[in-house]
Amino acid sequence: MNEGIRRYFRYTSWPILLATLGLVGIGLGALSSAEQADPRLSGIVIRQAAYAVAGILVMAAATLVPYRRFGPTAYPFFALTLGLLVLVLMLPPVGGARRWIDLGVFRIQPSEIAKLSLIVMLAWYLRHGDHYRRLRGLIIPFALTFIPMGLILVAPDLGTTLLLLPTLYFMLFMAGAKLRHLLGIIVAATALVLLPVPQKLSETAGQSGQQARRHVAYAQLSGDEGEYVVVPALVRAMRPHQVRRLSGWLRQGDPAVAQDAGFQLRLSKLVLGAGGATGQGMDEDAAKHFNRILPEHHTDFIFAVVGGKWGFVGCMLVLLCYAVILVFGAEIAAVTHDPFGRLLAVGVIGLLLSQVFINVAVAMGLLPVTGMTLPLLSYGGSSLIVNCAAVGLLVNVGQRRPILLSRRPFEHGEKREKVPQPFGPLAEGHTPGPRPESTVLSGSRPPAKQRKSRPLDRPSPSPAPVDSHESR
Amino acid sequence: MHHRGFGYAGVYKRRLKIFLGIVAVLFLALTARLAQLQLTQGEEFRREAEGALRTVRLLPAARGAILDRRGRVLAMDRRGDNFCLDYRFIAGDERWRQYQVRRIARERNIDIDSAEEVFREREERTWAVARKLADRRDQDLDEIVQRIVRRTQRIREIVGQPVEEQTRAHPVITGLEEATAVELKGRLDEMVGASVLPGHVRYYPYGEIACHLIGLTGPVSSEMQQQLNSRLAGSDREVRLRDSYHDDDTLGIAGIEKMCEDILRGRRGYRQVRRVNRQEQVLHQVAPEPGRPVHLTIDIKFQKELTELLTGQGYTGSIVMLSVESGEVLALVSVPTFNLNDYRRNYGDLIGDDVYLPLMHRAVGGLYPPGSTAKTVSALSALDHGVISQDATISCAGRYGGDGPACWNPHGHGPLAVIEALQRSCNVYFYEVGDRLSIGPLSETFRQMGFGERPGTGLPEERGGLVATPQWVRQRRGRSARRSDAWFIAIGQGMISSTPLQMANAMATIARDGRFVSPMVSLEGGLSRVRRQVDIDRGYFRTVRQGMFRVVNQPHGTAHSVFRSAPELRGVCGKTGTAQAPPLVSDGQVVRQGNMAWFIGYAPNDNPKVAFAVVVEYADDGGSRVAGPIARDALRIYYSDRYEHLR
Predict the structure, then answer these.
(1) Is the dihedral of CA B257, B260, B262, B268 positive or negative?
(2) How far apart are the first and last CA of chain A?
(3) Given B260, B295, B330, which residue is the final one in a domain?
(4) Looking at beta carbons, which residues of chain A come within 8 Å of B37?
(5) Domain encompassing residue B64
(6) Is residue A409 pLDDT above 70, yes or no?
(7) How far is Cα B476 from Cα B456, in angstroms, rounded to an integer?
(8) Per the CB < 8 Å rule, is B49 touching A281?
(9) pLDDT, tens only, A206-249
(10) Is residue B7 part of a domain?
């Protein structure tokens, strides 16, 4: 057992954990700025700290049970999540949106749980079989993703909705779906979404809403029954505030738009940009002022607060932390041979990458405002705990990596030993094998240089790393 | 080999590399953008942020008061309640709207869609209330709103940075009645973006007394703005900020309010504020300069009593009294009057009344045929040009020549010298005078006495009237002047018209033996005064004055009977006039007809102090019976103990 604990720690991906803790810490620092700026937010740092403690516990817990145990629970868990998503729509709105289930002391945001649930479910579904290498085989994964998407979209929570698609894509991509299928779907969907359709302007409410639609229109027409715009089909379906966000993003240079539809974006860039290299852009009062008037500065726009407080250096540190998680997460995905583990790891880093990129890009005006938290930094218990759990799962997969009991292949081409090894070092029923020194285990080591074009590729084709699934 | 989902493990590895490639590209993009925003443009954003904290607040200047000669307040700025709408509501600011919707959702714990619905209801109700208030005053809400938007944009342009006008409530309906204000305050919760806030309203304590003289304020029209602001072109920002006119600004549009606009208006101030965290730090402040007061030369109580002389009889017309010594106007009565405080509310009725024309300032802008009152000037002209002498007589047989125009006395006056001709107001005598003078010399004397041109008080309503010259006849009538033109001008009919003020001032000029002084209505503002000696021998003035003395004080004087009952008024000199005027036609119907009944003069005969002119419109009798008693009563009031200070 001692040996087991030793291995548990040895194969734990410490860079990922350190980066995670660093991000949570930076988040707490940024939140203290947000809290000072805005009296309505008093107490959020303490609460977020409590969530962080809970999150770290959840993360630790997520590493204790071998991840494969989660597999059979994937479908029930997914069904439960869908149930919560339906429930939230039936409950009275909290703060104007149907996003939370109020439990008194704590509000649960089912859409956050849905992200993780979807990954686990998809990983479990995609883990074997190659039906998704046919176009028809893609129907079920897409359908399974669209169910929570639809429910979250009604909530309404556009940001989370949009997040699920790239995650699905990353997972299908890594699972081996055919590129032409994936690209074909993208092209078809893009064409569909951009399809020009007419819309009567008077159907949209408000002067400002009409103006926004004009901004995003392909063309404007005047008919007998009023003014029409020709807009992309997606815009036709969007709600007025979403169209305004789109126009605010498209017309960032227009001062009138910056005052109105593009206000949040402009303010975000202002706070971020004024941070400069190290963050002494504004005096304390001014910084508070802008933090306060920037909507969602403690959640969706926390990156701007980081940028205002610590400047370029702080932002780069944040991006570096995410990069560490992504790269070491990719390493875990690379060394894992169990398809469920691989897909789980890929799902987690895919989700993380999507969230980080979209959120940060939004804060800097590269993408239209969608309303999405920055994982591990933004205020919010559900988001923080779920993201911690996701990182925990990633680490868990890494801990159960297969052990190569062969020596490193050197140029002299010594024949490697081949020791059957059903699971990773902590796999059930594992008997400690030979000393780890003689194994190739850690992705943190330089990979083998056998094939220049595939640095991540382990020596292959044979003898392949031992894995029960791949052993014949 | 059984591969699960992969052609071979290499695909997975390759794709993982592609994934890492995507990570690298995306993070590079983020880093590049970050460097652009924070390193390249950081300083720019810092400046923009500082600028966004600063705002300019305009500090309105109170408009100056208008006072009478005793210091009584005739016009003042008073606190009043205004119905205001937030600029962001008016402009349809989406961000503000969303904020309000969220607030509604929070307060009533409903979802956003229901809150949107509530907001829309409130929005509609707000507009409905505003429209109702505007309609009740005959105002156009759309126009008011457009004015507010234009004003804000203009100020924003001048300042060149955000101004508080963009985020504050703007008065839409000003000077609410108290009951309305209370009712509205109770309904604000059902509305959105609306408020009832105190503001300044112009208040006129004497209501309708001297309404035409005091005048009116109103919003500045676009054309006026252009005209007024063009004066500021090339001035620096501060001057333009403080002195420029914008929509919704108040501007004097009539009377003293207009004439003394620059004195009354003052200069607005401004405050440059840096506002952070709801705390304000004043960076720069320029205090407003309140408008200065304007002192009028009239006595409002005196004016009131004179006004009642006309209104008491149901007359319309005018009374002007001015100080002979100083040329100061002591009373400038024009009837009918209207209440200045209710002007906006009654605007429709006032402007639509084309029978009694209540908005017309008759004392300075009403053009009347002078009738026999003109004979004073005709006599001067004849004496000056030597066509008559003081003693030479002209005989009146009731008709001029065989078939010429008649005298008012069909029996004729017999032979008359100039003094008796004035005393009895003989038409035939003055037809002959006109005939001998001809139109050129006659009009020349009228001009010298101040007819045909504005008297020069500076009041915007002032008119000059008409004195036909030979050129004028040629231009306007397309013919050369006839002898008969001069006959009629000599008795104040035909191509001659004058205002009561002109007439009173001509009396003052005669009382001063020919010294012309342009009248004044206020100690401040107005035009620079003209003082000149009329180029006529002083002796001739004495002759005319004798005639005017006899009109009142001797039997056969046309006003003798009227003044016989007032022995204390011995020494008044006057001249009656019963001018024929065409009937007033409105919509094809004769609505008013009668004579313009005049009585003009000065008092007392030796050392004259006061000159006056009374005109009653469309009187059913002559000057002596209608205007004479009014003038007599006015002089009684003038000589009463109450008005010792006027003498």
Answers:
(1) negative
(2) 30
(3) B295
(4) 269, 272-273, 307, 364
(5) 54-295
(6) no
(7) 25
(8) yes
(9) 666 777 888 888 888 877 777 888 888 888 888 777 888 888 88
(10) no
